[in-house]
Write a structure and sequence with these properties.
Layout (H helix, E strand, L loop, with lengths): L1 H7 L3 H9 L19 E5 L5 H10 L3 E5 L3 H9 L3 E2 L2 H7 L2 E4 L4 H9 L13 E4 L5 H12 L4 E4 L2 E2 L1 H7 L2 E6 L2 H14 E8 L3 H29 L4 H8 L7 H11 L9 H17 L5 H15 L11 H8 L8
Parallel strand pairs: 1-2, 1-4, 2-3, 4-5, 5-6, 8-9
Antiparallel strand pairs: 7-8
Length: 333
């Protein structure tokens, strides 16, 4: 809570009070909410993460103009107060534009292809990419938009679908401080912490480090629970026994209950994490950093891809180890 107050200058209790009284946050005076203007915000990408993020902005009183290839997702956001528009219309109408899409090439296509956002965007506008991409891809967007007098912040997130729904995402940012400051009121709506790490690409670098830690942790937790289950122990009781010790983690608390329930409905699908881990390997190799654990994890995900698990939650990584040991981690029958 203290972090949010430090970043925005708006006490969290003030934000909550405004929301409870149904007062749009964009109507906070300029002295109270730095950079806040009564403006349209473009939001492109209404997937597992983007849809609830856009809806949280609408709930907070932000006027959202949205686009996505999934028309059912667009219809849902429109039903909650959003307005549908093309990429070019968003570029023309909006001073702040958020992208939340699966990959760097898609971000660049949305921004720079014919009929894209950059074809109509005005000088002084700001683009914030909250997708998980490589640092080089973020830096490319930053440079191209700077040539047009447009700001760019890379601001990937951690917290998965629950964090997107609850507005509790951790937001890691790269770019210029004045652009980060302009985004702070929106970050306050979408997350419970936001930090400017450094220049363009720094947020994407932090996100890749985050993905290394999260996915490798899921893998080693999976391996350990496959071992415990094969040895005859009740995996739920093993979890309860060790979660309060040094082995305990937010990852274990999030994934083991899902695994023992055989619930692989995606909050963070393996296909997205597979892409992120590939980006980790390629980015690390480009700067001569060996990452042997993460490289092995990529091969594990490749195996899961071959066996049709790309749309499972990344807790489904356990299925790789289960196949090796011929056992399932689940409650005893």
């Amino acid at each position: 809570m203290r972090i949010k107050e430090h970043l925005t200058g708006i006490p969290v209790c003030r934000i909550m009070q405004l929301q409870e009284n149904h007062i749009p946050i964009q109507n906070i005076p300029e002295t109270e909410g730095k950079g806040r203007k009564d403006m349209k915000l473009g939001f492109i990408g209404l997937g597992i993460m983007g849809r609830p993020m856009a809806k949280n902005l609408l709930k907070a009183g932000v006027e959202v103009v949205c686009a996505d290839l999934n028309k059912e997702a667009v219809a849902d956001v429109v039903a909650n107060g959003g307005v549908e528009a093309s990429y070019a219309e968003i570029g023309e109408q909006c001073e702040v534009i958020i992208t939340m899409v699966p990959s760097g090439p898609i971000v660049q296509s949305i921004l720079f292809d014919e009929g894209g956002v950059a074809s109509t965007i005005k000088e002084g506008a700001l683009v914030c990419d909250m997708s998980s991409v490589t640092p080089v891809e973020s830096q490319t967007c930053y440079k191209k938009l700077k040539e047009k007098g447009v700001g760019f912040v890379d601001a990937p997130v951690s917290g998965g679908e629950p964090g997107a729904v609850n507005g509790t995402l951790a937001i890691m940012c790269g770019g210029d401080k004045e652009d980060f400051d302009r985004m702070q009121p929106y970050f306050d709506i979408l997350g419970n912490s936001a930090l400017l790490i450094g220049p363009s690409g720094s947020g994407s670098t932090a996100k890749l480090a985050n993905q290394m830690i999260v996915n490798n942790t899921i893998a080693v937790v999976s391996e350990a629970f496959v071992f415990a289950t094969k040895a005859g122990a009740d995996p739920e009781k093993v979890y309860q026994a060790i979660r309060g010790g040094l082995a305990g983690s937010a990852v274990m608390d999030a994934k083991i209950p899902m695994i023992i329930d055989r619930n692989f409905k995606p909050g963070g699908p393996i296909r997205i994490n597979h892409k992120d881990i590939k980006n980790c390997v390629n980015s690390a190799h480009a700067i001569d950093v060996p990452i042997p654990y993460t490289a092995q994890l990529y091969e594990i995900m490749q195996t899961l891809k071959i066996h049709g698990h790309m749309n499972d939650d990344h807790g489904g990584i356990v299925q790789y180890f289960e196949k090796l040991a011929d056992v399932e981690v689940k409650r005893p029958e």
